[in-house]
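Course assignment 3, question 2. Fill in each field.
Student: A.L.
Task: Predict the tertiary structure for the chain below.
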Amino acid sequence: MRYKIRHITEYSYQEMVSIGHNRLCLVPLNNNGQQCLSSNITILPAPDELAYQTDFFGNTLLFISIYKEHDQLEITSESTVDIVNRPNADRVQASATAWQDLKNQIAINSEIYADVMQYTLPSIHVPYSEAIRNFASDCFTDGATLWIGCQSLMQKIYSSLDFTPGFTTVNTPVESVLISHKGVCQDFAHLMIACLRNMGLPARYVSGYIETFPPPGKEKLVGSDASHAWVSVYFPEIGWVEFDPTNNLLPSHNHITVAVGRDYFDVAPIKGIIFSSGKQNISVKVDVNRIS
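Answer field:
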């Protein structure tokens, strides 16, 4: 499948901004099953400084600085991406790896698993927590395979949480989401990652998009009008396998990956600092359209 993605972010500031520095994470990844054919980011007012970099996780970042006064900022990202079904998703159901075996292997062979071990540790939005561990524990019974545990956990989160836009913010603690049973896609993802890490298993955060308008007869997926988030879990004999707890499914050809990291903090689409006072308003519009 080939998709055209348009992501527009508009900031309106109450007072003039004298200086603004921002880090953008808006360029889709090239990986197994996905190829970014083109990417263009337009910024108004035009930046005085601009530089692309590749971060620790392999994501493409754009750093911009604006030194002229402005009371509005518009960032438009347009990309064309080719997607095929995730090959690992087709293989995972046959996986016989026990979740306890993976947990023990990582603890014993830290050098072999150095690349994935970091995804078992707590991070800014993903804490170690007894409450979270208790929530996850009945999905990971003695002798259960990693696949069965992850599938059970995804289904439990999907059935336990209501998708409620505006109820949480990017700074809402995952424990609060667990108590309220409400959130958006990043909350679903953070909770699943937190559950897995609290069980000693490696899981990472995936940011991206899903198709805005599905094919005839297919239901529109939750989160398709904005950036989306899901989870990637490490299987030793397969690699990283993705799970979408917001929609209770394994991502396939209609999930477009932008970036991966430990949690939302690593892959936020736009973050930065401005020199100004007063309030700001933000508007985000996302369109993902199949073109072939």
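Instructor remarks: The radius of gyration is 19 Å. Residues 243 and 250 are 5 Å apart (CA to CA).
Grade: pending
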